[in-house]
UniProtKB/TrEMBL annotation:
It comes from Parasponia andersonii (Sponia andersonii). Gene3D superfamilies: 1.20.1280.50, Ribonuclease Inhibitor. Residues 1-20 are annotated as: Disordered. CDD domains: F-box_AtSKIP19-like. Residues 18-65 form the F-box domain. This is F-box domain containing protein. It comes from the Eukaryota. It holds the Pfam family F-box-like.
Amino acid sequence: MVSSSTEVSPAESPPEERRDWLELPRDVAASIFTRLGAIEILTSVQMVCKAWLEICRDPLMWRAIDMRNDDGPDLDFDLEKMCRDAVDRSCGELVDINIEYFGTDELLRYITDRSNQIKRLRLASCYEVSDEGLIHAIEKLPLLEELDLTLCSFSAEPLNALGRSGPHLKSLKLNCQAYRLSNVFPHEELDFNKDVIAIGKNLPGLCHLQLIGNSMTNIGLEAILDGCTNLESLDLRRCININLKGNLGKKCAEIKHLRLPNDSLEDTMDLLLILRMVY
């Protein structure tokens, strides 16, 4: 008996279906766009087609403006002009804005004069914004709940202004460059604690406080613990001049979410910026 076999060729896989992104429903496209940064929307997305341009002009697209800039200060765009354009498109609906590596007092005034509903403001490496510019912004934003000042050069004065004009503030991030202090006289030590002393004095309602890289000593930490009695989270990573032994450490341990000076920064959203700090 002769057996015969036939070679069966593998079935051809159906051609891959190609998705035409231009045919996405408007609400789906808008949802995707809101996950992008403002720079990408203004320089790329809105130029794809007329339909996408119309979506990008919708004020609801600009309730949150993220001028996140991973390329740093060397990005070849007029970021201040782009930010003003984004603010104009929000038509007063803006509630959340993030600015990195650029910004001036004039820009901050432009934003706050047109957007008094802002609840979250983040400034990162905005060295051209002065104390006066930030104070003016604080006074114009009565609904502010979250303030993030990362790698900026402000004195304690804006923190005093928060006590007068920021009744709803619940979260403050004041992330700095860490400096190790040595052979400091008592009157000099106060200078390194002015900002955190101002926090303890003026912001008793704070729930969340992040102080990565702050140069404060135990004097400043005690002022925070005594003044901010509602703290639910306290981030002391890279605060290299404090000593948490004894009663001070015990008081810190009572806070529900506590990050210690030597804890890792890996879970920090602002990792790219904060890793540039000097330890």
